[in-house]
Amino acid sequence: MNYEFNWMIVLTGEYRDWIIQGFIITLKISGISILLSLLIGTFITTLRMTRIRIFEWITISYIEFFRNTPLLIQLFFWYFGSYYIFPEKINQWLYSYDYEFAVGVVSLTIYTSAFIAEEIRAGIMSIPKEQMEASRATGLSFIQAMSYVVLPQAFRIVIPTLISQFLNLTKNSSLAMTIGVMELTYMTRQIESYSFRGFEAFTVATLLYISLSLIISLTINIYNKKFLRMIKY
Amino acid sequence: MHWEVVWNNMGYFLLGRFPDGPVGGLALSILLAVGGIFFAFWVGILFGLMRLSKRWYVRIPSIVYIEIIRGTPLLLLIFWFYFLSPILFHRPVPEARSTLLAFTVFTGAYCAEIVRAGIQSIPRGQMEAARSSGLNYTQAMTYIILPQALRNMIPSFVNQFVSLTKDTSLAYIIGVQELTRAATQVNNRTLNAPAEIFLAIAVIYFIICFGLTQTSRYLEKKLSYKTSGMIHRKETDLLNEDLSVPS
Questions:
Q1: What angle do CA A53, A35, B207 make, to 5 degrees?
Q2: Own/partner pairs for A222-229, CB < 8 Å, 24+ apart?
Q3: The pTM is what?
Q4: Residue B103 to residues A65, A202, B78, B97, B238: CA-CA distances in angstroms?
Q5: Which of A22, A16, A24 is nearest to A197 (CA)?
């Protein structure tokens, strides 16, 4: 291997700033998307649990469609197609903001919410049916029973899988570079094309992603050890 | 709406320029996915077994490999192999081949975890019984544990194949002529029907992936129903008949 490493070039000056900026945008886009997809995922699961036929059909097709198509195609669909789908007013409003970032958040949210919905459903299914029946019998409505009795218990169980979804989301956010969101992978690619120092830049980016993933899996382990064993059924 | 753009280019989406040129489009996506899962299967078995080893110098490399790959985005891995393979092989490597390498290494780590979970799901008594009936570790693994474990793993492998099929779209980024690349090319050429084109491509991916997901669900149900009986029958078979295993 005849390649001379020059680490200083990516650890100092402009290129270091690029990497830091990229990493911050990666964290930002995944942070916003995970919050939104948690909300949407919970909403979808609740709709599905109502056992009303038409809601069931809509939510199942939403989940299956977005789980079984590549994220890249979804990104391109929203990025190139939004102009033809949405009315003029919404487009103008979108273009006045950071359009690429918004499309990235929308695609990542829709994609991840489909996965999260399935996981929350698995969590709810693991709560004994009597919990729901008992709370309905004491006079709570379906929504009250869901939000005060079933969901709080289900969330405690699904938190580890939700955290690993966050990890997946962080890794998936690298795809946003294809539509021009300047996140970590985009920046390393840019450093590569400016300086031909690809391996150094890729190493630094890989290390950043891996340390993020290690921190997240450590959190899951601690959570599992400390909290999960307290829940008994 | 301009759905005719989609219909006029359907041949290009499905096969690329195949009869006159290289294979592309959906056919290449499927080739990449099938090739990737085939090689990743063997990588997964190797590293899954290493992961379960008692010797630390065998186990640690496997853990490091699995953790590093699972913590890295596939996109970054594709770039790694795109820039690394000319240096590794001392000659230019076609994009499709370097992505196939990336897919193998990436999916191999996930397959290793599937193999580990599958082997751990087999009751310990199976291994102990096999060892005490005179088989050595390798024989017990190949003739007793792996055949049962692999049967349980089939649904997980199908799921892995589904996500690999979706992930082949990332080969677009370094210019492999697969389905996503074909779609963006047609989009850049026509410019007036992006929503239609990408929706159609999404439906093509959906048909394949959803079909496979349903297959895996069906297999999961069928196998979990059968396995309990199967293990029982195997045990009695072993008791009744002579072991026809070379020793």
A1: 50
A2: A223/A159, A223/A160, A223/A163, A224/A160, A227/A156, A228/A156, A228/A157, A228/A160
A3: 0.86
A4: 24, 18, 8, 10, 40
A5: A16
Which positions 72-131 of B are in contact with A (Cβ < 8 Å)?
72-76, 79-80, 83-84, 87-88
H/E element holding A124?
Answer: helix A99-126
Question: Which residues on chain B are in Cβ contact (under 8 Å) with A73?
Answer: 169, 180, 183, 198, 201-202, 205
Q: Are A157 and A124 in contact (CB under 8 A)?
A: no
> What tens digit of pLDDT does each residue of B204-242 get?
999 999 999 999 889 888 877 655 545 444 444 444 444
User: ipTM value of the model?
Assistant: 0.85
**pLDDT, tens only, A175-211:** 999 998 999 999 999 988 888 878 888 999 999 999 9
Question: Angle at Cα A186 formed by Cα B29 and Cα A31, nearest 5°?
Answer: 95
pLDDT tens per residue across span A53-75 = 999 999 999 999 999 999 999 99
Task: Inspect the interface and report whether the beta carbons of A202 and B79 lie closer than 8 Å.
Answer: yes
Q: In whole angstroms, how far apart are CA A78 and each of A136, A172, B145, B196? A: 41, 16, 48, 11
Percent of chain B at pLDDT exceeding 90: 56
For B2, nearest residue in chain A (alpha carbons): A84
- Per residue in A102-147, pLDDT (tens digit) is 999 999 999 999 999 999 998 888 888 888 889 999 999 988 888 8
**Residue A47 class from Cβ within 10 Å (0-12 exposed, 13-18 middle, 19+ buried)?**
middle
What residue ranges define each of the domains in chain B, with the CATH number in brackets?
Answer: 3-240 (1.10.3720.10)
Distance CA A25, CA A186 (A): 10
Contacts of A212 in chain B (CB under 8 A): 71
Structure tokens at B69: 């790959």
Confidence of residue A151 (pLDDT cuts 50, 70, 90): confident
Given a cut of 80, is residue A233 above it in pLDDT?
no
Give chain A's domains with CATH numbers. Answer: 8-230 (1.10.3720.10)
